[in-house]
Model the fold of this input.
Amino acid sequence: MKLKLARVLSTAGLMMAATFASAGVVVIVNASSPINSATAEEIQQVFLGKRNEIGGVSVTPVDHSEGNEVREVFYDKVVDKTPSQLNAYWSRLIFTGKGKPPKQYFDDAEVLETVQEEEDSVGYIDSSSIAEGVKVIFTVQ
Done:
């Protein structure tokens, strides 16, 4: 009985993950930003603190908090790091005084609001959360 329940829950989890993954993740900037597109490499470097501009325009990354599904998809597909690798990366930079991670927000709504209000912000959200005041500069594949 327990094995059957575990299978059902596992299948349900996979279906939910597939539904989520199909929605997609997009990288956004404020609608008034001169940035119209970015490469995966540029975005990766911004979110790893290796650069602070895209196309010559200064940007400030806006991140999701740990455990957020959108964050896991973004870092897996764009930055190519697992949550534990990312934690180790930032721990090393913080310890050596060479960097600090982007400010983290709870969910898409908070990231969206921050990007809408702060012209230099760059963030990522589920594509179903796109709203006025932002524009998409990259779609996570």
Observations:
- Residues 2-23 form the longest helix (22 residues).
- Residues 20 and 69 are 8 Å apart (CA to CA).
- The first strand starts at residue 25 and ends at 30.
- The two ends are 39 Å apart (CA to CA).
